[in-house]
Amino acid sequence: MRTLVMAAVAIVAPLASALSPQPLVAASRDLITSGTHLTIASQAVDTAALAALMDALLNDDDPGVRRAAARALGELEDARAVPALGEALQRDAEQQVRLTAAWALGEIESPRAIEYLTPALNDDDVQLRRRVVWALGEIDDSRAVESLARALDDRDVEVRRAAIHALGEIESANAVDPLLEALRDTDPQIRETAAWALGEIENSRAVAGLVDALEDSDTDVRLMVVWALGSIESGSAVAGLAAALKDEEPTVRRKAAWALGEIEHSSAVEPLMQALRDENAAVREMAAWALGEIEHPRAADALAGALTDSDLRVRRKAIWALGEIDLRSAPPALIEALADDDLFVRRAAAYAVGEIADPTAVPRLAALLGDDDSQIRRIAVNALAEIHDPGAYEVLVAALKDEDPVVRRAAARALGRRY
224-253 b/e with 16+ CB inside 10 Å = b? Predict the structure, then answer.
């Protein structure tokens, strides 16, 4: 189809200088009506051919031709077609033509189309209003915010939801106030989408309204509100998110821990340490991650306590978090974790001890050089390289005899860096 159309246009276009637009329309009619999914390379259509398509859109007596012409103009994505498409949107008698004209204006993505699309938001046809809202979102221009905000009062829930989604895509601070109003909509999907849009915009003016929405009766709404607050990353959200750590739904509590980790504010340390005792393992794991992101030494004891957690994932994450915190010495529980039964716990513990660089860990790290797992032996070598202690030097020299050449190379590099 594409090859046929492009070939035909290549024949018609050179005639543009010799033909008036009306004969060109007649010559192009078979192209336009050959299918609604018409694809034409924009470079193959000159001004006269574009004018012929616009003339067909506005003047042909066959609605199928008008609709196909609108489709073609949208696929060409030429802003010169905006006025003709706008006129078709406003006055064509056929719904399908007007729908296609609105779609084409969205495809062209020209801000010039806003003035044509906006009046159609008052149309009686709900399908057209939905299409117009979509098109305004595709244009992705802050000048469309005012029009989209008006659509938030539409009686159709899908129109309102599409308008909110478009505002989130545009990401203009001017949309914050109308979106906060949408957070009080009677439909939970509208409230959820409004929270998403505010998270996309990432403006701190939305924090207070979002914190209020943490009391929403719908779990999905609360989840999205928590995500939005984590995306905005404002310290003023910490108190609200700390309260969300006690939400009845574990998914909300887990997301609240994530959001606090994203914000990385020290005032979140205490509530996150409490969350390390949550009945849900996924919440405890995320709380440990968040504490590692915040990197506050005050969390060290609570994280060390989590190294005996019954859930393996929690222990692993707590070990990682301890390695992220700038500590002068490794908690005894972390050194004990170097002998954990779980391979991944031992690996994580060796890495964390290396980050802390505590000389008291040297004997346990030396013992790891007898581990069956060569990756643990390599991690242990790298950890020893970070520790300024004579005992670490001796172990690194011994590691030059390891059976695995990767471990031997790591030991050689470590000795070269340190000594």
Answer: bbbbbbbbbebeebbebbbebbebeeebbb
Residue 4, token pair as written in the block: 């046929």
Q: What pLDDT is stored for residue 388 in this prediction?
A: 82
**Gap between the terminal Cα atoms of the chain:** 71
State whether residue 271 is helix, strand or coil. Answer: helix
- Report the sign of the C-alpha dihedral through residues 403, 406, 409, 411, in that order: negative
Do 129 and 102 form a contact (C-beta atoms < 8 A)?
no
Burial code (b: 16+ CB inside 10 Å, e: under 16) for 290-314 equals bbbbbebeebbebbbebbebeeeeb
Alpha carbons within 13 A on the beta-carbon side of 326? 2
Give the tokens for residue 280: 């849900």
Please enumerate in sequence order all residues whose Cβ is within 8 A of that of 416, keeping only pairs 6 or more positions apart, or say none: none
Confidence of residue 5 (pLDDT cuts 50, 70, 90): very low
b/e sequence 46-75, b meaning 16+ C-beta within 10 Å = eebbbbbbbbbbbebeeeebbbbbbbbbbb
226 near 250, Cβ under 8 Å? no
Alpha carbons 351 and 385: distance in angstroms, whole number: 11
Give the global pTM. Answer: 0.79
